[in-house]
Amino acid sequence: MNSEEILKLLKSVEQGKLASQAAVERLKHMPFEDIDFAKVDHHRMLRQGYAEVVLGKGKTPAQVAEIVRAMIRHRESRQNILVTRADAKTHAAVKRVSRSAKYHPVSGVITIERSKEITGKGTILVVSAGTSDIPVAEEALLTARMMGNRAEHLYDVGVAGIHRLLEHRGMLADARVIICIAGMEGALPSVVGGLVAVPVIAVPTSTGYGASFGGVAALLGMLNSCASNVTVVNIDNGFGAACVASCINRL
Fold first, then answer.
1. Residues 77 and 139 in one domain
2. Residues 177 and 199 sit within 8 Å (Cβ to Cβ)
3. Same domain, 147 and 219
4. Where are the beta strands (DSSP E) in the chain?
5. Greatest C-alpha distance within the chain
6. Number of CB atoms found within 10 A of residue 119's CB
C-alpha cells in the first residue's frame, strides 16, 4: 500500500462511501501480516518506495508461494511482485497462486507484473563485462523494471575489447544511473566511471578463475576504483544494485 492508496481510503471514509469498520479491515494487516514462518511487510512500499521482494533461496517452494499469496491477498496493493534466486519448482508453486507469474531462468527471477507505472525520472543502464555475467545483469535489469524504471542493457563490453564499449558512448551518456557488472579483475566500472557524470553502481561477480577467489578480486578492485563516481555492492548482488539505482532514479 502506498500513500496515494491510503489517501483514497481515507477520503472514502470522509465522504461516507466506506464504513469506518470496513476501512479498519483493509488496514488491519499494516504494517505486516504474520503467516507463522514469515511476516509479510505490506508497509514496505509506503516506507521505502517499493514493495517487499522475496528471496527464494533457502525457502521451500510452498513457503514462497504462501508469501506471494499473502501479497496478492492484500487487495489495496497493486505493486509488482518479485521473487529472486528461484528455480522452476518454486515457479510452479507460485504459478498455482498467480497465473501471471513469469519465470526468467537465466536470472532465476519470478515476476508478477501488476503495474506498468514508471516512477523513475530517467533510464537505468545495466552494463555487463562478459556473457558469463549476464545472470547477475538480468537480475538487476528485471528488478529495476519491476520497481518502476525504464531500464536498458548493454552486454559483453568488457575491457578485453574496449572498442565494444566505446561504440555505445551515447547510451552511457543518456543514462541517469549505470549498473556496471564484471567479474575477473573487475576493471570495467572504473572505465565506465571515467566516461560519465552519473553514479556508477559496481557489481562484482563470481565469474573468474582460481585467483579471482569467487569474486573477491573483483570486489577489491572495484572498492579501489580511481573513478570517484563508482560505488560497490556485494558479490553477485544485482538485486541490491538495482534497488539503490531505483532510489537514485526517483530523486
1. no
2. yes
3. yes
4. 33-34, 39-40, 54-55, 81-84, 102-104, 109-112, 123-128, 150-154, 177-182, 200-204, 230-232
5. 68
6. 14
- Same domain (yes/no): 153, 231: yes
Strands 109-112 and 102-104: antiparallel
Q: Grid coordinates representing 25?
A: 479491515
Q: Tens digit of pLDDT per residue, the chain (251 long)?
A: 566 777 887 888 888 888 888 877 766 656 778 888 998 887 777 777 778 899 999 999 999 999 999 999 875 567 899 999 999 999 999 999 999 999 999 999 999 999 999 999 999 999 999 999 999 999 999 999 999 999 999 999 999 999 999 999 999 999 999 999 999 999 999 999 999 999 999 999 999 999 999 999 999 999 999 999 999 999 999 999 999 999 999 99
Note if the pTM is more than 0.85: yes
The answer to whether 113 and 80 have CB atoms below 8 angstroms apart is yes
Q: Is residue 1 part of a domain?
A: no
